[in-house]
């Protein structure tokens, strides 16, 4: 499973637990991007596992998708491929331990 984390070390390191917040899609006007299949792991919806980001129309941002697993690309969340984000969303349960190192 390839992933990309936060630019300039914005992804907090440590041990966390999957939180209750999850959903199919979100869009943040402040960040000017959204994503599919999100699951919260810190601050109840602030830090998420989710698909590569989308634009305001729900289209994947190709340049970020091409960098998945190669370099940090997020504002602090953890980007996954669409298939992996969907699997994570469907299978990783509330309370599951997450270690980010």
Keywords for this structure?
101 residues; alpha+beta; L,D-transpeptidase catalytic domain-like; five-stranded mixed β-sheet; two-stranded antiparallel ribbon; 2 helices; globular; transferase activity; transferase; cell shape; peptidoglycan synthesis
Quickly describe the structure.
The chain has helices spanning 62-66, 82-91, and strands at residues 3-4, 14-17, 22-28, 33-42, 47-51, 78-80, 97-100. By secondary structure, the chain is an alpha+beta fold. It has one domain (3-100): L,D-transpeptidase catalytic domain-like, CATH 2.40.440.
User: Which CATH C-level class is it?
Assistant: Mainly Beta
Unreliable parts: none
The helix tally amounts to 2
> What portion of residues is helical?
10-25%
The side-by-side strand order for the widest beta sheet comes to 1-6-5-4-3
Structure explained in plain terms:
The chain is an alpha+beta fold. The chain has one domain: L,D-transpeptidase catalytic domain-like. Helices cover 15% and strands 35% of the residues. The chain has helices spanning 62-66, 82-91, and strands spanning 3-4, 14-17, 22-28, 33-42, 47-51, 78-80, 97-100. The strands form two sheets. It has a five-stranded mixed beta sheet with strand order 1-6-5-4-3. The chain has a two-stranded antiparallel sheet with strand order 2-7. Strand 5 (47-51), helix 1 (62-66) and strand 6 (78-80) form a beta-alpha-beta unit. The longest helix is centred in the last third of the chain and has 10 residues, at 82-91. The model has no long low-confidence stretch (mean pLDDT 98). One of its GO terms (cellular component) is extracellular region. One of its GO terms (biological process) is regulation of cell shape. InterPro entries: LD-transpeptidase, LD_TPept_cat_dom, Transpep_catalytic_dom. Pfam families: YkuD. This is L,D-TPase catalytic domain-containing protein.
């Amino acid at each position: 499973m390839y992933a990309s984390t936060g630019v300039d070390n914005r992804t907090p390191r440590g041990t966390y637990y999957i939180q209750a917040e999850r959903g199919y899609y979100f869009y943040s006007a402040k960040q000017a991007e959204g994503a599919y299949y999100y699951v919260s792991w810190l601050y109840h919806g602030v830090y998420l596992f989710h698909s590569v980001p989308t634009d305001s129309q729900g289209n994947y941002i190709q340049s970020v998708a091409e960098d998945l697993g190669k370099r940090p690309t997020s504002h602090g969340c953890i980007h996954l491929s669409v298939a992996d984000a969907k699997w994570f969303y469907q299978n990783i349960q509330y309370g599951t331990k997450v270690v980010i190192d």
